[in-house]
Request: fold
Amino acid sequence: MQDAARFLANSPDRLALLTRLRTGAARPGTLANDLDCARRSVQRNLSAFVERGWVERDEGGYRLTTAGDLAARAHADYLDRLERLDRFTPLLRHLDTDHTPPLSLLADADIVVASPENPQAPVHAYVDRLEQFEGDSIRMCSPVLSRIFHEAHASLAMRGVHTDLVLSEATTKQARELNPLEFETILRVGVLNLYAHPDSVSIGLTVGQDRLLLAAYDETGHLEACLASDDSNLLGWAEELFERYRERSVKVEPSDGLPSDLDSE
Reply:
């Protein structure tokens, strides 16, 4: 496998020829014209492919064997994964291994990234995408408090959408201290179940009935990238991640605002 990878990587012309042969058999002259390269170079690479068992000659010229077709597919998949990795690096760079979705599940996902020209682009994308959520409940983890997000989720609550929210203990205390009356009221009206997690929550996650939002923050708490997807497998991954957070969390009851063990700290 390493030898095959080196064989292809050492020559862009071989890669181009292998990709061209996936579209059908052809003679050396046709291949040279299609690839805009010297016929001698095409003939030399075809001979190398034949020697490897990737290409054979028939009445229509040269065509891929089964092994050659598999080699071409493997190479195309490799390039696709690299392209996907490059596209989602602005998000993945801020996630640790335990919070990183499989790259294979991101093929159809959309991503919005902060830039110097538009640092709030992921925030606006989150709010816009949240409005598209359907159903009567969502599950959410958040590492930060945000007035913009609070207002967006308040709109969902007005539509009768119930939220299960996981915050860290520190963020939960901060929310209560910022506005004790509002904190207590939200818990009492029944639109929100709040869970306090003993450790920091390092990822933003909003899971709906048929779609999800995944948010990545930098070390200062600034939203750097927002991913949106309705892929069912990615949704399953997100649901499992949320449940791992909730299972280790303590539900915050409205009577005291915070569980007694948190109040006593």
